[in-house]
Amino acid sequence: MYPVVARARGWEGVAEVSISVSAGPAAPSLHLARSSGHAILDEQALQMLGRALESTPLPESLRGRSFVLPMPVRFSLEE
Questions:
Q1: In the predicted structure, residue 26 carries a pLDDT above the cut 80
Q2: In this predicted model, which residue has the larger pLDDT, 79 or 38?
Q3: From CA 72, how far away is CA 63, in angstroms rounded?
Q4: Which of 6, 32, 56, 60 is such that its CA lies 20 to 30 A from the CA of 20?
Q5: pTM above the 0.90 mark?
Q6: Which stretches of 1-79 are assigned E, i.e. beta strand?
Q7: Which residues pair with 29 in a beta bridge?
Q8: Is 25 helix (H, G, I), strand (E, B) or coil?
């Protein structure tokens, strides 16, 4: 969901969120790897991917592995 304030102000950008998964039982973690230039868009990207992680199980083929997955989130008013 596009933040209402950002839409009203015409803010766009790409926030890159890194998802880190460890080989152990710890839950995946998120951090902002690159800012969109707007804190509200960055926070929305983190929240959106956090909700997705909570509801999406890790595929069996990736369990027990450590990896980092960069996820760019594009906020564009044209789409």
A1: no
A2: 38
A3: 23
A4: 6
A5: no
A6: 13-21, 29-34, 67-75
A7: 20
A8: coil
DSSP H or E segment with residue 12:
none
Write out the two tokens for 23: 């080989």
| CB-based contact 43:5 (threshold 8 Å) | no
Candidates 30, 16, 28, 13; CA nearest to 71 is: 16
CA 64 centroid distance within chain:
22
SS (H, E, C) 17-63: EEEEECCCCCCCEEEEEECCCCHHHHHHHHHHHHHHHHHCCCCHHHC
Q: Output the CA angle 60-66-70, nearest 5 degrees.
A: 95
CB atoms within 10 A of CB 25: 6
